[in-house]
Amino acid sequence: MSNTSAPEYLTPTIASKLPQVGTTIFTLMSALAAEKKAVNLGQGFPDFSCDPALITAVSEAMHSGLNQYPLMTGAPALRVAIARKIGMLYGHQYDVQNEITVTAGATQALLTAIHCCVQPGDEVIVIEPAFDSYLPAIALAGGKAVCVQMELGDDGYLVPWAKVSAAVSSRTRLIMLNSPHNPTGSVLHPRDLQALADIVRDTDILLLSDEVYEHMVYDGIQHESVCRHPELAARAFVVSSFGKTYHVTGWKIGYVAAPAALSAEFRKVHQYNVFSVNTPMQHAIAHYMNDPQPYLDLPRFYQRKRDLFRAGLQNTRFKLLPADGTYFQCVDYRAISDLPENEFAQWLTAEIGVAAIPVSAFYEDGKDAGVIRFCFAKQDQTLQTALERLNKI
Length: 393
Hints:
seven-stranded mixed beta sheet; four-stranded antiparallel beta sheet
């Protein structure tokens, strides 16, 4: 019997393309919430089910044999439904064949849009705080993020358009927008789109508009999609998400609407990225979209939850910031503690039993303003349990 041990083989090292990226704050806070048995108002997904009719539609699509590759651009029936919805809500007519592409969620759509138009050395203006996938996607494309921070005042978070204009250079290729805005819950207004149009007019700057929370706008406010503004729509990739709209975030299906020339370049990258998206779910969503009422009712559905949550915090020392859209509520906690946001969020999770996300996680420089984000896309009982604990602080 030989005593010779098996040879050891070394794994080669690689130079990271994202050396600054580690475990996300969402993963860390969810793990801590599970460990401490805290109510998780950190990650942005519902803890309730979607409409059973949508599940039935998926099952029927599977049983009817719709289980093979769809067209790379998306199932025709779904693209027709998307174009119909956009036309009805925003008055912009996209060509079904050449201007709408179904994607594997909004994150893939954003990454693909960036890669199809950003060359190494190009600059991309990002308005912060910003969703955490934006900066890594720009870095992977070889671009340079130029961050402009929103300003927080009595009216909540606002985009300082003069600073956005000042950030534009000869290397600016793309400006990224997000409305309704994660994490702040702010929304863009017509004056914002006009200010943006004034900035990009007579330039070759493109726009990437993240509108995944388009159906979650409250108090009678209208969602100002870039689609509404013809001058902006002509240079924009507009991204949305069925996962957010229909309470099925795990399905990872979204779409991009863009002019034909932009869509052609988008599809060149898309076809070698995911190629196509889950067939039976595309057909199920297309069928479900025949009734617009579910997404038309969404503002009322979530506003009730927002109002319940805000009312429950009214007598605490948290300062409620405006929440005009999304399913997020930001609060200023500086009357409670002078801990940095990251530490306060951990303390809140471990000691109070409610998990939140520090807004500093949405800034490139980790800007700390004493603000955390709660998600109110939860069952009423979940929110009530969280509120009981928060009211003890």
